[in-house]
Amino acid sequence: MGSAEFWVLVAFVIFIGVLVYLGVPGKVTAALDRRAAKIKAELDEARALREEASRLLAEYARKRDQADREAEEIVASARADAERLAADAKAKVEEFVARRTKQAEQKIAMAEAQAVTEVRSAAADAAVSAAADVLTSQARGPLGDTLFDNGLSELRAKLN
Predict the structure, then answer these.
(1) In which region does residue 99 sit, left (phi positive, over 0), alpha (psi from -120 to 50) or beta (all else)?
(2) What is the rounded distance in angstroms from the CA atom of residue 112 to the CA atom of residue 119?
(3) Which residues, at least 6 apart from 19, have a Cβ–Cβ distance to it below 8 Å?
(4) pLDDT tens-digit profile, the chain (160 residues)
(5) pTM above the 0.90 mark?
């Protein structure tokens, strides 16, 4: 019993006994169990967060797809509206040009009619003037006196 190894063994056994008596192995086990439970809880929470993130990602992808479809519909509707407005504007311009052309043609026809009327009037005035000049020159002299006398006698007959 005198060896040093023996006393080290005895001290070691006593030390282990004191540790067991004080419940150190239970405390260590409990601490390890708590640590394992905490790690498990963190893993569960991480898994739940990952699932929620996946769900949110899928939801946002769906919303993005829906927004893309709506944007395409809006663009298609805007194109259709623009084409319709362009067609309406073209039709209105064509109608305006046709109306203006018709008005111009009517003004031209009226101007032509007025010019023809003025030419006829001028021709009639010239003819009357020429006839008056001819009659005036022929009515002077003996024929004029005879015509005057005949006219005067007709006037007296009609007045009486």
Answers:
(1) alpha
(2) 10
(3) 25
(4) 668 888 899 999 999 999 888 888 888 899 999 999 999 999 999 999 999 999 999 999 999 999 999 999 999 999 999 999 999 999 999 999 999 999 999 999 999 999 988 888 888 878 877 777 766 766 666 777 777 778 778 777 877 6
(5) no
